[in-house]
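Could you join me in thinking about how sequence relates to backbone shape in a protein? Label the sequence line and the structure token line clearly, so we can match residues to local backbone shapes. Once you have written the record down, we can walk along the chain together.
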Amino acid sequence: MSRALQVCAGFVGLGMALTLGSCLSPQVGAPCPIPEKATEEQRQAALYNCFAVQIETLAPSRPQKDVDILFMIDNSRSMSPKQQALAVNIPKFIKKIESFGANYQVGVVTSDVGTTPNASFTYPNPDQAECNTFTGDDGLLQIKPCTQRTNLSAEARNACAALCTKPAFANATQLTTDGKPWISNIEGKTNVPPDLVPDPMNPGKMLDQGPITAFQCMALVGDGGCGMEAPLEGARRALDGHRTENKGFLRPGAALAVIFITDEEDCSVQMARRSETAPPTKDCQPGQPESWDCFNTDYRCLARSLQCDQPMSAQGPHTNCKERSDSFLDPISKYTKFFGSLTDKLVISGIWTLPSTTDGGKLVVQRSVAGTSSAFLSLSGGSDASCKYNGTDGRFSSVWGNAQRRLSAFADSFGKDDKGNPKALQLSICDIDKYESGLDKIAEYIKKIIDPNCLAIAPKMLNGQPLCLVGDVDKTEPQALPDKLFPICSASCCQGWANADQASTEDPTVRAACAAEAQDCFCAVQSTKVCSASKGWIGGVWRKDLQQPPYGKEPSFRCAGTPLQ
């Protein structure tokens, strides 16, 4: 059957009131003038002309699967092994995101937003020269390859040398070809140099893993940032619009995933109280009034943001720890409100220290052997105050993390879903052997957000059925017409898509309603459950026996109707 006849047969099979004669090629009887030796491009153009006559404008309504992914990576002195472990495990994460058919953008921001109370202030400790800055990286998306960073420790340089080796990336001053400070892969087109490798699933073909290689080079942001980390503030600044360089990273209608990688407490200090972050310290004894300068800068953020049954200047166990009412840090609610206002398709995940000292928690404080005053207090080892790596990989034997409360409280502030599961996923920074599985879980969270397949078109209805062409197309040619059209699923199956909470083939409502379908089919139904009111149409494809799409293919929706805003 010719391509034109296939298309028309699909419409007739859907019960649409089109006559066969209206879509036949000239060889059978016009009005679709398709030359016998037409190229594929000419054939498609002729088909569009035919459809324009019969069903007004046929507009692409490919389900929107746009996601912007922000990695907030701590760049303080202890982070080199964690950054390396992240870079090693990122390929499968990126590949999984690509397997969803997502159009993604990936950016990296650091936890360094400056420490000094004003630009003219000089940080008094020369051993912490990296803290002598008012703005730090200030939320700027980091696109520089690690090979171009000069303030790396020997450990960080070794990690960079092991992972950022391809000349097109290692020798670049910037990793993207379009000058944007983020990596993108939109409709199969990336903005980074190619890195072609053999495709293990398709002998004779090559895969472009340029985005993966670029991410490995840029994720190694180094360990030259200030140790008073502010991951919440750093991520906020990356997205609040004040950096013109970041403009365009957040796309209207796209899902947003923010993934935090850090090994200490968040120290997002109120600007008006930044003077309380600077050295020196003085000796304070338990029972005496505790001021900000009783504690060294590494312990200060926790000590000045928590209130326990025992003084923070005392050694030993501390119990019933809660947030101080007079904390010098910005309230967590500030960040919950900010990120929640960006989109209703939000994924918050953290790879940080667990367990945490969330309200009612406990921790153990000790003095180092260096001295006896409160200035030498720090968190002790053990599960109540830290975590450490217990795996077998010798590269990561020094991995540890200090207790935190704010980050877990931030994650908890997003609540739970209707099944009682936390909406924000938390993983331990010390479980390096589990980074791969943890990132896989985060990818699955993202899949749930982008899977609903909200259409950009409100389809026109003909005899009660949506006027759509739906079928598989090559991922590299998403605008092409399908070689074979799917029929519409049964009414009960489509009702399942309309009623589902997730509106994906993973949803039990969809599976129960569509299990009896005898062939691959599609639904285009209204559902404001998972789409916003202005984009309340779901485009769902059910594949018989839950089969995967053909290799390299993805479903394409082309519907006549009204574009949604």
Observations:
- Residues 1-32, 51-59 have pLDDT under 50 and may be disordered.
- The first strand starts at residue 58 and ends at 60.
